[in-house]
Amino acid sequence: MKPVGFWFAHLHRALESSLEQALAAEALTRRHWQVLNTIDSGASVDEALSPFGDLRETVADLHARGWVDTEGALTEVGREAHQRLKAKVGEFRSRATEGIGDDDYRTTVGVLERMAANLARE
To answer: pTM for this structure?
Structure first.
């Protein structure tokens, strides 16, 4: 059995690559999706996505597309794009978790959270 670090790195690369492919038709990245989804949820992009660094260029790109207004809210076109992308991301997530039951998924996420918390105490 390979160690968790191997599988974590492998899965991370596979998730990034697969999601990028799902968004490529619209010349978007994972960060674009995260920003759109965060704005739709009503949360602050700066607060919710701070671990991902400065996202001003991503927000500016969404603004240039007409998807985000000057106040940082989704426009009508942005809401339509978000719904369209939400369906694509839903398909991606379904494919990634195919054959994995809810209990197994929750257990896996819980184990990863505990491991991260253990290492954060150092």
So the answer is: 0.82
